[in-house]
Design brief:
Distance between the termini: 20 Å
Strand content: under 5%
Shape: globular
Structural class: mainly alpha
Number of strands: 0
Largest sheet: none
Number of helices: 9
Helix content: over 70%
Number of domains: 1
Radius of gyration: 18 Å
Order of helices and strands: HHHHHHHHH
Amino acid sequence: MSSEFVQLLIFGLLAGGANILGGLVLFPSRLHVFYKKTLRYLLALGAGFMLSVTFFELLPKTIEIWAKNSEHFSEQLYIPMALLIAGYLITQFAEHTIAPHFHLGEEVHAGEMISTSSAYTGVAGLLIHTFFDGVSIAAAAHIDIRVGLLVFLAVMLHKFPEGFTVGSMVLAAGKGVRQVIIATSLTGFMTFAGVILFYLVGANLGFTVAYALPLAAGVTLYVAASDLIPEVNHHGGKSPLVSISVIAGVALFFGTQSLLHQILGHGH
């Protein structure tokens, strides 16, 4: 068993486990209240970090790979860019066509419930998204352990809110803790499956990192810019702390990147 595979196993298990913990937060009342108060700041921090990972790691690495592998790079640049927009649109379709009730945050409102079919449709939409979370981690780690770790951290920052969303949708449909655990476990498993399937199957099918990375970048860009930022703007109101948290997420990225450069060097 290679060290890369062990690393990916750990990343996949931790990311999937965070989904489950995010759903379980709904049940201990004191923890739930505290988490609701800090959710907006966690979303803002994650948004800044994910945007930075997309623009300073995933996109530059994508362009670098295609420049090395193509004699007519300028003519073929449309291929990775098409994959980028495809990843963005796949996520849009999954979250707002398959899962029209989706948003990152709590779905339980006073006097309001959603149907069981709406809740499970929302979960189904998230399964597609979480699968590509795993693909993002594996594709990035395939290039460079440092980039893989940065993408893993970016994914982890929205895993708790994701599990919280899944759990609250299930509760809003009138279900209990058992159904919440099942739904969040399935969501977490899809992240793990994305990691493992890309590592074991992707290359054999010709779905190399050159194609997976821009697709994953589009998914990451959508989560950051179209999921997290609107939620931050919606819940943050006029509080400057929310905008500061987005900037703090960017600063956290550069701090983490600098630290990883010092510890691991400049990668492969």
